[in-house]
Design goal:
- By secondary structure, the protein is an all-alpha fold.
- It folds into 3 domains: 100 residues; 96 residues, no CATH class; 37 residues, no CATH class.
- The chain is built from 15 helices and no strands.
- The longest helix is centred in the last third of the chain and has 23 residues.
């Protein structure tokens, strides 16, 4: 990447009126873009990080490649000049001199953004993108989705109070793919309200309760799992059949006489030995010792 050393960033004067700052800020990005070579990934990242809340003020002071370091220094000079045209903006000059390292143009922009509360519109735009584009397709993901919606509502509400009503249809649209009876009942109950009473905050609260109830039901079902559930999908080493293991094998239990039906037959057999005529049972017991009648008489 090469930045033409003859290229200069010339910004218009920083406006005194707060409501004109967003327009001035757009002009800053246009001037940076004009100074960058076309289709340069590193240069575009240099500019995009100005509007990325995840990039901290300290991160913007990280060392840059030489061409971008030059561009950053030129941006710093241009911002300082833009703040010196009106006496009402001297307060910003002082802040830049005390809080920004020399030559750190992007940090200088961040200081002005903070002073003009410019972060709020950026966060609101990002939140609006999530609400418009992010779809939730399962109850397992609903809790996380609801938490993100609550944050988006907070960020967008700083810009417009109408958000409470405006984003309701989009929230409902983005959860259409979830197939759950409890959630469907929750949504139906919400939609039965008068349109003027339907607020996104109320909808988010209801979705959160549905997600909590779903998770509680899942935990309850886990406690009801049958003892042989661990063998699902496995093959028994004894009978060769699927979906159980040898310790749970009914065939093995039957073969060893441990089955329910076998046990009953065994019981009947024992009763037959003990029941009936008492003399016959005694004779059978004696005859079973292996001695002949002659041997017994001699004894």
């Amino acid at each position: 990447m090469v930045v033409d050393r003859d290229v200069r960033i010339t910004l218009v004067d920083l406006p005194v009126e707060f409501h004109r700052y967003p327009g001035w800020r757009v002009g800053v990005k246009c001037d940076i873009l004009n100074a960058l070579p076309q289709e340069n990934e590193a240069g575009m990242l240099f500019m995009e990080e100005l509007d990325d809340p995840s990039v901290t003020f300290e991160d913007l002071a990280d060392p840059l490649p030489e061409p971008l370091r030059i561009l950053n220094s030129r941006l710093y000079s241009a911002v300082m000049k833009a703040c010196q045209k009106h006496s009402d903006n001297y307060q910003y000059v002082l802040s830049l001199q005390t809080e920004v390292a020399f030559g750190q143009g992007r940090q200088a922009i961040r200081i002005l953004d903070k002073a003009h509360n410019y972060e709020a519109p950026l966060l609101a735009i990002k939140a609006g993108g999530y609400v418009s584009n992010h779809k939730c397709g399962s109850m397992q993901d609903l809790s996380e989705h609801v938490a993100q919606l609550r944050l988006c509502l907070l960020q967008m509400g700083k810009i417009s109070q109408q958000v409470e009503v405006l984003i309701v249809p989009q929230i409902l649209k983005n959860i259409e793919g979830i197939q759950n009876t409890g959630l469907s009942a929750t949504i139906a109950e919400f939609e039965n309200q008068d349109l003027m009473d339907q607020r996104s905050r109320d909808l988010i609260d209801r979705l959160e309760k549905a997600a909590i109830k779903f998770k509680a039901k899942q935990e309850e079902n886990k406690k009801k799992v049958p003892a042989n559930a661990a063998g699902l999908g496995k093959k028994c080493g004894y009978c060769g059949k699927d979906n159980h293991e040898e310790p749970q094998c009914y065939q093995k239990q039957r073969d060893k006489g441990g089955g329910t039906k076998g046990g009953k037959k065994g019981d009947k057999g024992k009763k037959g030995d003990q029941g009936g005529k008492g003399k016959k049972g005694a004779h059978q017991a004696v005859a079973g010792d292996g001695l002949s009648k002659a041997q017994k008489r001699k004894q």
